[in-house]
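Quick one: structure for this chain?
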Amino acid sequence: MASHDVPSDKGLATRALSLAYGRTSIIDGLDAAFPTGAFSALIGPNGSGKSTLLRALGGLLSPSAGDVLLDGASISRLPAKEMARQVGMLPQGPVAPEGLTVEALVRQGRYPHRTLFGFWSERDRDACEDALRLTGMEELRERPLDSLSGGQRQRAWLAMALAQETGTLLLDEPTTFLDLAHQIDVMEVITDLVRARGKTVIAVLHDLNQAARYADHIVMMKQGRIIAAGRPTRIMSADNIEQVFGVRTHIVADPVTGTPMCVPLRRCRKQSPSSAGREGRSALSE
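Got it. Here's what it folds into:
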């Protein structure tokens, strides 16, 4: 069982959470909590359970045991539409009907807020316009999704998630398929949502330096367990990275932001308690 010291009475948390696909256990007895009004990054090697945990947090995967809590109450008791008003999610590789335009996709993000008779309100229109503007998709609103590049499609899906106007947003690898410039755009959008709008964002990221630069809180996972969680300055250590990724690194201060920056050295041939941490010690003091 893994845990960390973020209070769990508000926001999303897990209690003795176990998740499985069929008979294959992915996560077993996990206790975790995510700070509200902050950007949390889930990092870890492939198969560590990051995306599985994110799906459970979004109510897309039912626990085999334990619970996911939202403000202290089980999300299993929330109607689907109410859950969608509070927690939005952008999964990996979403698929849209053929011919659907960017604007039509973004409008789908307003579904949880629509009335019984489906009247389109000024609030709905404003939310969609805001989402298109934040993601730089205004000029592409009339384009079919299947005519866009992979990066443009990713931004269109992000716009749909933003139009949902939830207090919490879950993103599974939001910078996938994006070039460097658009990766920066997306990370800055996330930062703005958190800093200026008070949103809670939890995202699966593969880029450790991206996570360290932008996230307020990092959760480092391996084999369905949380190895470490907390501020990037505490979590991004050479020992933690070696334990989780099997790679020896040197940690320095980012010359621009002062956040930890990981410089890979080499893959570990074999890890053992005696050899862990001999190389790649951190040059960054908290």
